[in-house]
Amino acid sequence: MKTKRIISVAIAAVMAAVSAVSVSAAQLTESSQSGQTEVKARIEGAQPGDVSYIITIPDVVDFGTLTQPADSTKDSYKTVDYTVSLDKAEGLDADTQQISVYVKDENASVNGDQEFYIANKSDPTKKFKYQVFDVPSADLNYSTININRNTMTQAAGYFLKGFTTVGEEVNGSLVINQVQLCDYSLADIVGEYSGYMVFFSTIENQ
Fold first, then answer.
1. Do residues 34 and 72 make contact, with C-beta atoms less than 8 angstroms apart?
2. What is the pLDDT of residues 59-108, one digit of tens each?
3. 176 burial class (0-12, 13-18, 19+ CB within 10 angstroms)?
4. What is the CA radius of gyration of the chain?
5. Do 86 and 165 contact (CB within 8 A), yes or no?
6. I need a surface site. Which of 51, 101, 163, 185 has the fewest CB within 10 A?
7. Which candidate, 198, 172, 58, places its Cα nearest to that of 117?
């Protein structure tokens, strides 16, 4: 599974700045033939309290080939795992701060549809729901609750995890119930499907 990184420098950006300002003038004369000029500059680094971090998120999560179940009255689940990890955290006060990661469907909104979908690339009106869990498929059972169990109350999405220590991971899973395919003629829904999970990270107080 391919991954990509969210890289952030928060509170104050790490920067280098050099400035030259002429603040006064000296004069050379026949009786004072030499003089000196102070050349000044400043380099600013990270300020106390700055936090920089790298969160690695999946680049692609692939359900593979979906199959229309023969029995439309029985659930037919297919799962695939994903990982989100904290790979760098500098300046983070792990006792009082956390790097919170949220996730939502690309089209989800606080006042609109908040489900996760994959849609037909040729006809996006044909789409199927999937669920997002923060535990791997091997640990799923009848009592496991998906992260979008409650109403999404903020634009960032559903809370996934608050990271505080480098190496922490969310080993989660996506689950699609293929019984949804039974609502259509197979000939009408053939094709490639995709959708996007949008991740958002921010530094928050614990």
1. no
2. 899 999 999 999 999 999 999 999 999 999 999 999 999 999 999 999 99
3. buried
4. 27
5. yes
6. 185
7. 198
Element (H, E) at 188: helix 186-189
pLDDT in tens, 2-43: 566 655 443 233 333 333 444 456 656 556 655 554 555 554
- Size (the chain), residues: 206
User: Dihedral through CA 174, CA 177, CA 180, CA 182, nearest 10?
Assistant: 140
Backbone angles phi, psi at 188, to 5 degrees: -85, -15
Angle at the Cα of 162 from the Cα atoms of 161 and 168, rounded to 5 degrees: 80
The three-state (H, E, C) secondary structure of 65-127, written as one string: CCCCCCCCCCCCEEEEEEEEEEEEEECCCCCCEEEEEEEEECCCCCCCCCCEEEEECCCCCCE
Question: Exposure pattern of 29-38 as b/e (b: 16+ CB <10 Å)?
Answer: eeeeeeeeee
Residue 66: count other Cβ atoms within 10 Å of its Cβ: 16
Name the CA dihedral angle for 99, 105, 106, 109, rounded to a multiple of 10 degrees.
-90
